[in-house]
Amino acid sequence: MNWRYQLAIVAVCGVAVCSAVHYHGKYTNERERANTAENNLRLANNTITDMARRERDAAALDAKYTQELAIANAENDSLRQRLAAGGRVRVAGKCTTVPATAQTTSTPGVDTTTTVELSESAAENVLAIRAGIIRDQTALRALQEYVNTQCLN
User: Quick check: 106 pLDDT over 90?
Assistant: First the structure.
């Protein structure tokens, strides 16, 4: 059992015992004290059960997004290794402006989509930026899901 749960159990039981001792003079019979203690214990158990569920849910969210991030990082590392081994990194792009000389030789209506080869340093920069975007987006999705599933419930 997690130390937080053990601490919560001790705290809640302590509160139940203190309230029973504190209210001893206010109750006219033993049954009222027993009912109060049972109610406090039930509330404590419900709180502990809820805490355990929330911790399991948070751990599942953490595992889900940690796995997603690990896959994305592995893909990025694979691209980096390919680049380091002399491979090429290409980016599909579309020319929005075509020089006048190219316009005269091209067929009208032909798409100007092309492949652009990046230098090694530019490719490294693109991969670093990509890794940062993936990390930030994953963290944002994880936080949004945590808020929606844990804080708003």
Answer: no
